[in-house]
Amino acid sequence: MIKTIEELRNLAADYKKALGHEKMKILVCAGTGCMSSGSLKIYEALKKIVTEKGLYVDIDLIKEGKKGGVNVSPSGCHGFCEMGPLVRIEPQGYLYVKVQEEDAQEIVENTVEKGEVVERLLFKNPETGQTYETSKSIPFYGKQNRLVLEHCGTINPESIKEYIALGGYQTLADVFEMSPEKVCQTILKAELRGRGGGGFPAGIKWDSVRKEKADQKYVVCNGDEGDPGAFMDRSIMEGDPHRVIEGMIIAGYASGATKGYIYVRAEYPLAVKRLKTAIEQAREFGLLGKNILGTGFDFDIKINKGAGAFVCGEGSALTASIEGNRGMPRTRPPRTVQKGLFQKPTVLNNVETFANVPLIISKGVDWYLKIGTKGNPGTKAFALTGNIVNTGLIEVPMGTTLREVIYDIGGGIPGGKKLKAVQIGGPSGGCLTPEHLDLPMDFDSLKSVGAMIGSGGLVVMDEDTCMVEVARFFMDFTQKESCGKCVPCREGTKRMLEILEKIVAGEGTMEDIETLEILAETVKDGSLCGLGKTASNPVLTTLKYFRDEYIAHVKEKVCPAGVCKAFKSYCIDPELCKGCGKCSRVCPNSAITGKIKNPFKIDKEKCINCGACANACPFNAVKEG
Amino acid sequence: MAVMVKDYKRSFKKVNEIIESYGRNPVELVSILQEIQEEYRYLPEEILNYIATAMGISPSKVFGVATFYENFSLEPKGKYIIKVCDGTACHVKNSMDLLNALQKKLKLKDGQKTTKDMMFTLETASCLGACGLAPVMVINEEVYGKVTPEKAEKIIDEIMKREGNSDDKNN
Ligand SMILES: Cc1cc2nc3c(=O)[nH]c(=O)nc-3n(C[C@H](O)[C@H](O)[C@H](O)COP(=O)(O)O)c2cc1C
Ligand code: FES
C-alpha cells in the first residue's frame, strides 16, 4: 500500500533501478492472436531454460539482491499478429516471427548466451526476400509512431511494477498536485478528441461534468469495440491495462467522479482478465480505493461485461446496459455529461481516449499539439485488415495519408492486385477509393468525403471485391444489430437489406436502386441514434463511387468482380481433377460425387454456387463458367 | 464445471448463491444472467421466473433483458460452443466456407444450431478481435486462427475422440 505521492515517486525510482539490472529481456507476445498459436508454451519453455541456466531475474528477485540476468515475460499484442507467435529481445530489438516451442533452446543458446541472432527466425519480406533483424527496421513498424501503444509488446501487462518502473502512475501523482480545473484545461488545450468515433473534444466533456453539481458522478470507459474488423481497444486493454486505468483515475479526479466502470465486449475474455488483474494490483498499491495516495480522493473501478449487442457501444445504450436494462439508446438531451449513468453526470470516453491522457499530461500540451494535424492532434491506432500484405495493429500520427498506411506500412496489396476500396470505420463508416489515397486521415478530412474514422478499422479490398456485396454484408450486420426502438432504423435497414439481397441475387431493377437511395437518406435523417444515422453510409458511399457496379448487376446481369454467386456456375475439369475428394467433403449441399482417384462431378441441380469447392481444390480443377 | 441440465430443477441453491453474490441488486441483472448462463449453459425459463420473484422485479423485465442480448440463449446449448467469425476480415477470407464445412461435419440441418447429443453448438460471431489471423473460430474460450475447413474438421474430431464420441452418434 503506497500512502503518499512521495512514496510512489521513490518506489518508481527503485523499480526503475531494478529494471536497469535486467541485462536482457525476452518478451513473448501473449495477445489473443499469438496465444491462439501457442505462444504461452513458448514462454514457459523459454522461462524454464533461462531459469535452469540460473540466468532468470525479475524486479522482485533483483530487489532481493540478485544482480544482472535475463527476464522472460509475456507481453501484450505487438500488432503484427499475422507473423505470430512473436518473440522480441530487448535491448537489441530483435524480432523473431513464427516461433515454435522447439526454437526456445536455440534462442537461449545463441541469442541469450552468445548474443547472436537466430537468422531463420527473422522476418523475411515475402516479395523481396530481404530479412530484418530488428522490429524498427521492418517498414511495418518503422513508419509508425507508437505512443499510445508504446507499451503494447514491450512490457508485461500483468505487472504493475513494470508499469511503475517505466513512469506509470507518475502522471497521476503530478495530477494530484494540480487543481481539477487545471487538469480539464490541459486536456482542453491539448485538443484531445474522442477516439471512439465521434471525435468530440474530451476536455469539454470533463469540464462539463466537473461543473455539474451532484452527489455522485461517474467515469465510464467504452471498451465495447463492436466494429467488425477493429481490435485497437482490445490490444490496449490486453497489452497496457494500467494506462487505461490511470487515464480513468485522472478523469475521475478532474471531473469529481469517484466511481468508474469499464464496459468490455464479452468476446474479449483476455482483456477482461488483464483488466481485472490490473485493478486488483492498483487496489493493493493504494492507487484505487479510498484516500488514494493520502490525497483524500476516492476512486474505484468496476468491470461490466457486454452480452453481445453492437448498439451497446453507443453511449446511452451502454449506460442502460450497465444499469441492468435492455441496451437501447435514448433521445438526447439530456446529455450524458448531465444525466448519464444512473441519471448522474458522467464522463464517457473510449479506451484509446483514456490511454492518451497520461501521455498528454506527462509530455505536455505543446509536445502533443506538434503531433498530427491542426485541430486533430495526436495519433490514431488503426486495425489494418483485408487484402493487405501486413495485417495488424498500427499507430500513426493523425493526418497520415491512406497511401502511407497501405503501401508503406501495410506493404501494399498481395498478389500484385489493384486496390479497389478501403472501408473505414466499419459498418457505420464509408468506403474510400484510390482517388482518396492522398487524403490525410483525420476526423475533419474524412468527414469532408462522407466517411469517418469510426473506431479505426481499415479493411482493404482489392479488385476482386464486389462493392454491392460489401454493402449487403454491412447492411446485414446493422440490420441484425438494430435494437428496434425506432422505426426508420428497424424497418429501413431491413428493407435496404432486402433490396441489396435482390440485387446480388440478380433480380434487381433500376427502380430498386432508386428506392435504395431514397431509403438510405430517410434512415440517415430519421433514426434515433448513431447506429441508424450511419447505417446508410456503406450504401451511400458505394452508390456514389461504384454506381456502375450496381447497374451492371441490374442491367447486364453480371457481377463485374466475379463474386456474386447468382451469376456463376461451377464445373470440374476432368483433365485436372486428381480425384482427391476434397471438394465433395466441403460441399455444403452434397452436390459433388465421385470415386477417389477418378474425376468428380458436380450435380448442377443441387449446386448452390457457393464456390467452396473452388476454394478447396488443391489442383485448380474447379472452373467457373 | 457446468452442472447437468436437469439438476437445476431439484434446487435453486446455485441460483440463490449467484443472486446473493450480487446483493440481490437489480442493476446487476445482466451480470447475474451471465453467471447463470455460465453455470447452466443457457437460461432455463424456470430460472428466469425464479430470478424475477427472488429479486422482486417483473418477469417481463427479466425476459426483456434475457432476449435483448445476443449472448443469452433461452435454449440449451452444447457443451462446446463453436463460434465462427463472420466479421469483415474473416468474411473476406471465406469464413462462410468454414461454417458450411462445420455444419456438414456436425450434421446440422438448416436452422439447427445444436447437435442432438448436446455436445456442440455452432454459431457465428461478428469479429472476435483476432482479425490478423482470419478466418477465426473460437471453441468455448479457445481461439483458433487461420482455420481451413480441413483444420476445423480435425479439431472437431479431436474433441469427439476426447469425449468418447464417434461421428455417427451425432445425429
Ligand atoms: C452504434 C454505435 C456503436 C458505437 N460503438 C462504440 C464502440 O464500440 N466503442 C466506442 O468507444 N465508441 C462507440 N460508439 C461511440 C460512442 O457513442 C461514444 O461516442 C464514445 O464512446 C465516446 O467516447 P470518445 O469521445 O472518447 O470517443 C458507438 C456509437 C454508436 C452510435
Ligand atoms: S473479423 Fe474475424 S476476428 Fe475480426
Describe what this molecule looks like in 3D.
- The complex is a heterodimer of chains A (625) and B (171).
- Chain A is built from 26 helices and 21 strands.
- In chain A, helix 8 packs parallel to helix 12.
- The radius of gyration of chain A is 26 Å and the shape is globular.
- Chain B has helices at 13-21, 29-40, 45-55, 59-68, 88-92, 95-105, 149-162, and strands spanning 80-85, 120-125, 137-139, 142-144.
- In chain B, helix 3 packs across helix 4 (59-68).
- The mean pLDDT of chain B is 88.
- Chain B is α+β, with helices and mostly antiparallel strands.
- Chain B folds into 2 domains: 11-68, Arc Repressor Mutant, subunit A, CATH 1.10.10; 80-169, Glutaredoxin (3-Layer(aba) Sandwich).
- The chains are: A alpha/beta (625), B alpha+beta (171).
- At the A-B interface, helix 2, strand 13, strand 17, helix 25 and helix 26 of A face helix 2, helix 4, helix 5, helix 6 and strand 4 of B.
- Bound molecules: flavin mononucleotide and FE2/S2 (inorganic) cluster.
- Residues 85, 87-90, 127-131, 134, 136 of chain B line the site of FE2/S2 (inorganic) cluster.
The biggest sheet of chain A amounts to:
5 strands, mixed
Rg for CA atoms of chain B: 18 Å
Shape of chain B: elongated
Which oligomeric state applies?
Answer: heterodimer
Question: What is the count of helical runs of chain B?
Answer: 7
CATH superfamily of the largest domain in chain A: NADH-ubiquinone oxidoreductase 51kDa subunit
The overall strand count of chain B is 4
Quickly name the level 1 CATH class of the largest domain in chain B.
Alpha Beta
What is the CATH architecture term of the largest domain in chain B?
Answer: 3-Layer(aba) Sandwich
CATH topology of the largest domain in chain B: Glutaredoxin
Helix content of chain A: 40-55%
* Distance between the amino and carboxyl termini of chain B: 25 Å
- Helicity level of chain B, as a percent range? 40-55%
CATH superfamily of the largest domain in chain B: Glutaredoxin
The CATH topology of the largest domain in chain A is Rossmann fold
